[in-house]
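--- STAGE predict ---
source: upstream dedup step, 1 unique chain passed
mode: sequence only
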Amino acid sequence: MDHRPAGENLQEVLDQRSAELAPPIQMCDGLSRNKPAKTATDTANCNAHGRRGFVTVADTFPEECAHVLETLREVYKHEAQTQREAMSDDQRLAYHQAHSGPLMETLK
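--- STAGE serialize ---
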């Protein structure tokens, strides 16, 4: 088994992809070794990793971080609701699109 960093493995796959295509969306945490060396990707970090960065600087920038952290709190509450109701994947997606989507738009 090959134990290379994720970015190297991804680069190997992307080397086989047409260069004319738009950059792919890459879901990963923020570690630099997860990014491919030669091919640009649009990185989509998970909410937990993204939130962590705001928690880290919240003491220094309390007002700026408050909106993000409070918004993510509401999104996490929505996720808890989907768990309590044992929603299917399709139901969860629809629920988050209706309830969490508008909240996430405010973070853009």
